[in-house]
UniProtKB/TrEMBL annotation:
Alphabetical keyword list: Cell membrane, Ion transport, Membrane, Sodium, Sodium transport, Symport, Transmembrane, Transmembrane helix, Transport
Protein species of origin: Candidatus Cardinium hertigii
Recorded topology in the membrane: Multi-pass membrane protein
A single cellular component GO annotation: plasma membrane
Protein name (Swiss-Prot/TrEMBL): Sodium:solute symporter family protein
UniProt key word Metal-binding: no
Transmembrane segments: 6-26, 42-61, 73-94, 115-136, 156-175, 182-201, 230-248, 268-292, 312-330, 362-381, 393-411, 418-436, 442-463
Family affiliation: Belongs to the sodium:solute symporter (SSF) (TC 2.A.21) family.
GO molecular function, one term: symporter activity
Xref: InterPro entries: Na/Glc_symporter_sf, Na/solute_symporter, Sodium:Solute_Symporter
Subcellular location: Cell membrane
Catalytic activities: L-proline(in) + Na(+)(in) = L-proline(out) + Na(+)(out)
Organism classification: Bacteria, Pseudomonadati, Bacteroidota, Cytophagia, Cytophagales
Example GO biological process: sodium ion transport
Amino acid sequence: MISLNVPLLMVVAFLLLTLAVGLYYSRKTTTLREYAVGNKQFATATLVATTLATCWGGGGLVRTVEQVHHLGLFYIIFCLVSQDLWIISILAVRMGPFMQHLSMPETIGSVYGKYPRLITALACIAAYIAGLAVQITVISKAISFCLGSVDAELEYYTTILATLILIFYSTFGGIRAVTFTDVLQFITFSIIIPLLAVWMFHKISNSVAESISFLQTQEKFQFSSVCHSHIKLTGIVLLILTNLVSGIEPTRIQRVYMSSGIIQAKKVFLYAGLFSLLIMILILLIGLFVFVGAPELSVKEIWPYIMKNISPFAQGLISISLLAMTMSTADSKLNACAVMVSHDILESIRGIRIISKAYQFMLARLTSLVIGLCAMVLAFYRNDLLDLLKLTFAFTVPIITAPFVLAIFGFRGSGRTALIGMATGIVTIIAWDQWIEPKTGIDGSFVCMLANGLAMLAAHYVLPQPPGTGWVEPDDELKQIRQANIRKKECLAG
């Protein structure tokens, strides 16, 4: 019984520590701007930590270890190529005109008008409710690692406790509380993941050379298996492209707007991309070590095997790591939803001059609470992770990514142009999911995003446009950065 209680006590202690940190940093938030982006004076290291904590959910650790064991080299290549944080680093230097915004929908609204802004906010909220349900489901899985099948009722109530804690500090502390709890959570899982890799390595009896030789004899770890996979090459490429562009979403764009300027934002996502690659390599190694130690396992048996082969103390650490990764992703989505309701949806419906800032701030807190509770209910009644993840992608990539990227690169279209593109994205993703995806198994989000962008450009050049639309020159800050880069290259060449 002691071996079961040790991990649970560790989890409860971590939850209380997270609550204490969240409450401590909740004291100074008094305005919606502070609630959404803080004071824009965060250290680069802090922003890197919160960016990584937001991007790495608990499902990423669980799913990656399982799929490396199950799919082999194909999934390893997919994970290494699909590093999406560097995409934001490239976009960040072009986002100077939007750095005072609070959200991604506000940026789209500033270019295309209130209706595209409203659609963007609604689509993202729907996607994030599903995304929150995914994270709450993983919280339940992490707690089940502590308890096994001993007490289902205790697992249920502990999951509710963990969810209520993240809802509480997200609701009352805003992005400042989210950011500093993210730092704690990032430090936690960035220490525990390397430890898990070491533990799994010590569980295999083979040397490194023997392990490599063993993997080379396995068909799923040979390069020939990648091209001859049951998944078509086209599907592989589209899946990688979808994963790359799916990173262009509100919580990451919010981290850009939390930066003091585009230079800091670029550095944040550049450094975060490097650390993310390192974390990914460690997780891939865990999957490889598990495969070498027990190649015959089914997907469902992988994590029970891992937990069975480590000490109770280590089980507690792994459960804490999953909780840290999951809560740090969920609280950011919760905060983003609150901002989109109180800032974007309300202003799109009523107009910016009518809304009291105090009421906006109160509405943001209420929204965070309500959406968190709704997601928790959804997670207990609908816990199919794959269905929820597909829903998340379908609501965002085909609808909002193309208008946002075009705006960042200087396209200034009318509201009608953006609505045509969004409608095209919605229709194509529905048609793809209905007729193409069931027959081919290929995800169509990236194709539908391209259809959205092409429809916008076609509408812009074919239909009459109001004055002020078209392509604009880069802002002065970006021009100065380019000139500085040219001078650096000339000095190096000289």
